[in-house]
Amino acid sequence: MSGLRQFDVIVVGAGFAGLYMLHKLREAGFQAHVVEAGSGVGGTWYWNRYPGARCDVPSIEYSYSFSSELENEWRWSERYAAQPEILTYLEYVADRFDLKKDITFDTKVTAAVWDDAMKLWRVDTDQGNGYLSQHLILATGALSAPKTPELPGIENFKGAILHTAKWDARVDIEGKAVALFGTGSSGIQVTPPLAQKASQLTVFQRTPNFAVPANNRPLNEDEWRQSRATLPARREAARQGFLGFFDVPRAGAAKDDTPDKREQRFNEQWNAGTAGLLLAYEDLLVDEESNAHAAEFARRKIAETIDDPDKVRKITPQGYPLGSRRMCSEIGFYETINRTNVALVDVREEPVTGFSAYGIRTTDHHYSAEVVVFATGFDACVGAIKAIDIRGLEGKSLREEWADGPHAYLGLAVPAFPNLFTITGPGSPSVLSNVVVSIEQHVEWIARCLTDMRASGKATIEATEEAERDWMDHVHEIAQQTLFPRADSWYHGRTRDGRKVFMPYVGGCGPYRATCDEIAAADYRGFNLG
Ligand code: NA7
Questions:
Q1: How far apart are the CA of 182 and the centre of ligand 1, in A?
Q2: Any idea where the domains of the chain sit in the sequence?
Q3: Residue owning the nearest CA to atom 32 of ligand 1
Q4: Strands 389-391 and 109-115: what pairing?
């Protein structure tokens, strides 16, 4: 195996997770190296450069907490930073901690094979260079493998095709007829800037989502100073809280409040941003009746912004509980849908039947389009991991292992795949939380684990099947106690025969953290160390 560079740890991905993992491992004295497909750091924030892209958790919360020096040096300009500012922040972090010298860019990891004789991972890349390493950490992101639907006759289309997650800013939209597919978080963010430039925008919607006003604004000095003063306590509250946010749900049941009080409470929370409405009462994600009150409130708010009754009918979410699909954050989305140069097509009512050279045919109409934009999301939670051909003990394939839905002990490790860790993997709070909080927790847990292993002279760690089974049973059981299973959403994976498998852990960030810490303290219960 000459020619392969050898490290203690290879980390895949240089986004929020990979950067902090590298920093933490170096601090602990490990020889670590990061392999990144992009030409720069940033992960999701490197690739998702579509106009309107910004975080939907307030920036003060959606940022690292591990270094108070970093916190003091960085000043966010807006409540919800836009993609360029977040990317600049991650660039700053990479430079400040001198991380780039240990990152190989423009290189995609294609395969990783566990060599059980050598107790090492062999990692292959699309550039022909490979690595040997004792540990392999996948910091590949839960929303990083873009999906494009297979639409009939798309090969006939002669215009430009874009995906929000692989944006090409060279494509000129000014004055063009644009078609947008998808109304998830990305579609909702990209709609207003597209409509401002395009002569005509046609939005092809499959499932309407609940979107709440971001209420974005510049962060003024007072607000900034105030937030700094309370930062350490609020950071701690986020770590111990349910969703990893500074704010926590209000105690009590929505259904038990009087209609007036409920209306007042919903109104207060409506303006608080993405998760705000969900935090109005603590039972909204578990009680159908309480949830129905919140959903009805949100539907009324949506209807207030749009004049055309047909658009209101199409865009109003029905048939699933509020919050059981990812809540979206909007800045002028509904107002934009209201514009006369914006058409809304419900592809369930009016399916796409084909493409012409410059247009899209549905069962009812032909819509002109010179540019098609796909905001059609990601192979969530597992896509980027399954894109790598990962082979564990006895050549077991992780892709095959996960063909009936992903499983992992604590969302961190999979039996038969020794010394492999997934940051914010399936079975951890990941996409149901402020992901930066979840990333920091996983990174710190993994760093502690490798440090403990080194101290006790252990070379390998592998999750046991029993521990993984018990954990996944718990993940699924607790999800059943909520309203999440009532919706079709990307929170679910699918088995080969089409059954839904809920992927994230809904038990809350704080309890999850306590469980992980307790397992580590109990000599890594549920893991075999060798
Ligand atoms: P999402 O939330 O997965 O949204 C993808 C959207 O694309 C969603 O509305 C889909 O409808 C829609 N879609 C998919 N295929 C089609 C077709 N064939 N026709 C019309 N519409 C289609 O991805 P996003 O990028 O918006 O957001 C993902 C996360 O990234 C988000 O939470 C942020 O945190 C960042 P569906 O709902 O499947 O019916």
A1: 5
A2: 5-145+379-529, 211-374
A3: 185
A4: parallel
158 sits in the region (left: phi over 0; alpha: psi -120 to 50; else beta) called alpha
The third-level CATH classification (topology) of the domain covering 5-145+379-529 is FAD/NAD(P)-binding domain (3.50.50)
* Dist CA 365 CA 350 (whole Å): 9
**What is the rounded (10 degree) CA torsion for 294, 300, 304, 309?**
140
Name the amino acid, one letter, at 288.
Answer: E
If one counts every other C-beta atom within 10 angstroms of the C-beta of residue 288, the result is: 12
Report the distance separating Cα 92 and Cα 526, nearest Å.
38
How many Å apart are CA 311 and CA 524, to the nearest integer?
55
**CB 252 less than 6 A from any atom of ligand 1:** no
Choose one of 16, 206, 245, 345 to mutate for the ligand 1 pocket test, by most ligand atoms within 8 angstroms of C-beta: 206
**Atom 31 of ligand 1: nearest residue by CA position:** 185
Could you give the residue ranges of the DSSP H alpha helices within 81-184?
A: 83-96
Evaluated on CA atoms 242, 244, 248, 254, the torsion sign reads: negative
Q: How far is the CA of 241 from the centre of ligand 1 (A)?
A: 28
Choose one of 150, 151, 376 to mutate for the ligand 1 pocket test, by most ligand atoms within 8 angstroms of C-beta: 376
Q: How far apart, in Å, are the Cα atoms of 24 and each of 118, 121, 258, 450, 462?
A: 26, 20, 50, 11, 21
Q: Please indicate whether residue 326, judged by its CB atom, sits closer than 6 Å to ligand 1.
A: yes
Name the token pair of 108.
Answer: 């995609």
**Ligand 1 atom with least separation from CA of 204:** 20
Question: Which of 163, 186, 278, when mutated, tests ligand 1's pocket best, judged by the most ligand atoms within 8 Å of its CB?
Answer: 186
Q: Considering Cα of 5, then 8, then 13, then 14, what sign does the dihedral take?
A: negative
Residue closest to 376 by CA, chosen among 203, 211, 500: 203
User: Is residue 185 in contact with ligand 1, taking CB distance under 6 Å?
Assistant: yes
Please name the residue whose Cα sits nearest to atom 35 of ligand 1: 185
Written as six digits, the tokens of 354 are: 């084909």
- Counting Cβ atoms within 10 Å, is residue 206 exposed (0-12), middle (13-18) or buried (19+)? middle
How far is residue 62's CA from residue 65's CA, in Å, rounded to a whole number? Answer: 9
Task: Write out the chain's pLDDT in tens, 530 residues.
Answer: 557 999 999 999 999 999 999 999 999 999 999 999 999 999 999 999 999 999 999 999 999 999 999 999 999 999 999 999 999 999 999 999 999 999 999 999 999 999 999 999 999 999 999 999 999 999 999 988 999 999 999 999 999 999 999 999 999 999 999 999 999 999 999 999 999 999 999 999 999 999 999 999 999 999 999 988 999 999 999 999 989 998 888 889 999 999 999 999 999 999 887 788 999 999 999 999 999 999 999 999 999 999 999 999 999 999 999 999 999 999 999 999 999 999 999 999 999 999 999 999 999 999 999 999 999 999 989 999 999 999 999 999 999 999 999 999 999 999 999 999 999 999 999 999 999 999 999 999 999 999 999 999 999 999 999 999 999 999 999 999 999 999 999 999 989 998 999 999 999 999 999 999 999 999 999 999 99
